[in-house]
TrEMBL record:
A Pfam family: AAA
GO molecular function: ATP binding; ATP hydrolysis activity
Keyword presence, DNA-binding: no
Region (Disordered): 122-144, 468-507
Name of the protein in its database record: ATPase AAA-type core domain-containing protein
Boundaries of every ATPase AAA-type core domain copy: 590-708
Native source species: Timema poppense
Keyword Zinc assigned: no
């Protein structure tokens, strides 16, 4: 590694400490809380807290990446201070994020397979109806061959029955066989007698050594038995302390744990259904009993506000927009009062009466105040930049967008649940008073929106009536003003309509259901199944020397354990939760690079399996001869974009990320036209926002074959998947070999690792 990279290991110790403090707590929350809490009203709050903590962790990870100028952050110094190991940094798989999504995905695949089978059955029936019977199409030569065979068999049978053996020949045959048998018997007997004589001769030579031989055999056998017993005891001890790897791991406890988990999940679902049913009942009851009264109170309050403005200011107020909160802004006091409006009008009238010089002076003073404010802001920014330049041995923590929300949610949890006495609710069912309060808030909010629409229309009518009254007082007709106003509105409406039509995108599959679109992509091979794989099955050790290399101003190569943790942070956690995806740094696309057999496809399958993603395969060889032409390609990308966003989380996969941007297309790949998607992929990635849990995931073995600029623009992150080093290879070989009982527990795995140095995981 070169010396061009200068890491700031001394600067990131305190930031690493912030990250490290969250990891153990987060892992405990991930593994315990989702299954322990069954109360249906408490679980959403705890889940929100957990996801906000994960989002804050990813935010800090992004800070470390910017600080180190590297995707990998090594923090051994902070680990030693906090007395932790690298295994404490690994985030456990968040199982509850996936939920029961597998059942939904399987139902989609079953629907698509059922439709395909129905089509195949109809095609088979059509072909059977038009087919000619097989007997009518047999050639005449086959019939003649069959008759020749039967004729030959009949002639052979007649010859066999015509010959008969004589009695004399039969007797001679029996005698010859008997003589041969007696000869063989005599030969065996003579051989046995010779062996016995040889044994007797040897026993006379040995004499009295039988006893000595027996003692030696017993001693050797007993020694071997004792050594075997000691070896077994040693193996048991080493297995107990974890030195040896067992060939069989008991699954009783795991099965019991899974059964408890499933029972609790079923219990949670039952409680959730009860809560939803009671919320619906309470909603209907509140609307029926209190809905009309609430709407009357709201309209009366708003009308009083209209009357107050008319009495004091002579006009009607401007109604707050939906973005401002509607009539809620009136209740919270966030609207302009008539007194303030009158003061502003009086001030404007006073300024109008002043001489021109005085008015110009007031305008100049206002401009001067604005200039002073801008100059002050510039000075503050310059001071901040100067402070950043002065800081050489530290860093400035960026403002977090997650901490305020996290603080508010935690405050809500403390106020509602921390000190709540739940001794009377041992079954952890819902609280009816909380259901009533929640439905009251939601229904009031919905009713307020309806009232706002009604009162806006009423205010419009009042303003029109006020304009007519003023026009009548001035001696003008209100109808002419009305017609002029209508003409202006029509002109504006036309311009707006044209602008909207230009921006609106045409839906090429309007009117089709998600199931139909899914079946269409599944039939064409774009949507595929993938083997269920856990992220923990990607075995590998952490890098224990990388921190020291960083201190020596070198950029070391990461290990497979570091890579597994990075994939968890960049792909699994953001795609697993909508809230995490919205608050965490957005990663739209990811490219895994590495030689053949290092486990790139295993990582892709693990990402999809952990989050329950729909898998779209846009590999050039897979889409060859499909959706041909410009319109076909447009339809393909439209289908992929629409279905991936409707069925999120989704993974759009490209095997050979360099192929759409080849410098020169190889001859053997020209037929597949690998550069078909070079213009479509950037548009697709650009359409992904924080609301869409969709990721473009590419793998490549030869990134140098592509033009660098478009590839770098397309993918947000590039991660190198290295071959296993000694520690990772040792772990891999140990897991591969020690699951077989016939392999000795003290097998020298180290020698095998050294022999297989340089080989990839696929070769293993």
């Amino acid at each position: 590694m070169g010396n061009s990279f200068v890491p700031k290991w001394a600067n990131n110790v305190s930031k690493c400490a912030l990250v490290l403090r969250r990891h153990p707590c987060l892992n405990r929350l991930v593994t315990r809380v989702p299954m322990m809490v069954c109360q249906p009203q408490k679980r959403p709050v705890i889940r929100t807290l957990l996801e906000l903590c994960i989002g804050r962790l990813l935010e800090l990870k992004n800070e470390l990446v910017n600080l180190d100028a590297s995707e990998m952050s090594y923090n051994d110094f902070a680990l030693l201070e906090m007395k932790l190991t690298p295994f404490n940094l690994e985030i456990n798989a968040v199982k509850y994020l996936k939920g029961h999504r597998d059942e939904y995905i399987n139902s989609l695949f079953d629907y698509a397979i059922k439709i395909n089978r129905g089509r195949e059955k109809l095609d088979a029936e059509d072909t059977e109806g038009s087919a000619v019977p097989e007997e009518q199409t047999k050639p005449a030569r086959e019939v003649s061959k069959v008759s020749d065979v039967f004729a030959q068999e009949s002639s052979d049978g007649a010859e066999a029955h015509g010959d008969e053996m004589s009695t004399l020949a039969a007797v001679e045959l029996i005698q010859s066989h008997e003589r041969a048998r007696q000869g063989r018997y005599r030969a065996v007997r003579q051989s046995r007698l010779a062996q016995l004589k040889e044994i007797e001769k040897m026993s006379k030579d040995i004499g009295g050594k039988y006893q000595e031989a027996a003692v030696k055999i017993q001693a050797l056998w007993r020694g071997q038995a004792v050594r075997r017993k000691l070896e077994r005891r040693k193996t048991e001890q080493y297995l107990a302390v974890g030195v040896y790897y067992p060939s069989y791991i008991p699954t009783e406890q795991r099965e019991k744990s899974l059964a408890i988990r499933e029972y609790r999940h079923t219990l949670q679902q039952g409680y959730q259904r009860e809560l939803e049913e009671n919320e619906q009942k309470e909603r209907v009851r509140y609307l029926k009993v209190w809905g009309p009264w609430v709407m009357d109170d709201m309209t009366d309050e708003i009308r009083e506000w209209f009357v107050e403005w008319y009495r004091k200011a002579g006009i009607f107020p401007q109604y707050p927009t939906e973005e401002q909160g509607g009539s809620l802004a009136l209740i919270e006091g966030r609207v302009v009062t008539p007194q303030y409006y009158l003061e502003q009008q009086i001030e404007l009238e006073r300024i109008k009466r002043l001489p021109k010089e005085a008015r110009d002076k007031i305008k100049a003073d206002k401009k001067l105040e604005k200039m002073k404010l801008k100059e002050k802001l510039k000075q503050e920014k310059a001071k901040e930049k100067a402070k950043k330049k002065e800081i050489t041995d530290g860093f400035i923590m960026g403002k977090s967008s997650i901490l305020p929300t996290l603080s508010n949610v935690y405050q809500e949890y403390e106020n509602v649940w921390d000190n709540k006495d739940e001794s009377d609710n041992r079954l952890q069912k819902y609280y009816l008073d909380m259901v009533k309060a929640k439905e009251e808030r939601e229904v009031n909010s919905e009713l307020r929106k309806i009232v706002d629409e009604m009162m806006r229309l009423e205010l419009q009518v009042l303003n029109e009536a006020l304009e007519r009254d003023r026009a009548n007082r001035k001696g003008k007709k209100g109808r002419k003003d009305k017609k002029k106003g209508k003409g202006k509105k029509k002109g504006k409406g036309k311009k707006k309509g044209k602008g909207k039509k230009g921006k609106k995108r045409k839906d090429l599959t309007e009117g089709k259901t998600v199931e139909e679109l899914f079946e269409l992509l599944f039939t064409s091979g774009i949507i595929r199944r993938y083997p269920q794989t856990s992220i923990s099955s990607f075995l590998g050790e952490f890098s224990y020397s990388a921190f020291e290399y960083r201190r020596m101003k070198q950029d070391p190569l990461h290990n497979l354990g570091d890579l597994r943790n990075l994939i968890m942070q960049y792909a699994v956690l953001p795609l697993g939760s909508q809230l995490i995806h919205q608050i965490a740094p957005l990663i739209k696309s990811l490219c895994l690079m590495g030689p053949e057999g290092v486990g790139k496809k295993l990582l892709v399958n693990a990402i999809c399996s952990e989050v329950g993603a729909i898998f779209f395969d846009l590999t050039p060889s897979n889409i060859a001869n499909k959706y041909q032409g410009k319109q076909g390609l447009q339809m393909l990308m439209h289908l992929v974009e629409k279905v991936s966003k409707l069925l999120q989380p989704s993974i759009v996969f490209i095997d050979g990320a360099e192929k759409p941007f080849y410098k020169k297309v190889p001859k053997q790949e020209k037929a597949a036209d690998p550069r078909r998607l070079k213009a479509q992929l950037p548009k697709f990635v650009k359409s992904i926002t924080k609301e869409h849990r969709v990721m473009l995931l590419g793998i490549t073995e030869q990134p140098w074959a592509a033009k660098p600029r478009p590839v770098v623009k397309l993918y947000n992150k590039f991660i190198f998947v290295p071959p296993p080093d000694y520690a990772s290879a040792f772990l891999l070989w140990q897991n591969l070999l020690m699951k077989y009982p016939g392999v000795r527990r003290d097998f020298n795995v180290s020698a095998l690792v050294k022999v297989a140095a340089g080989y990839t995981i696929g070769w293993f």
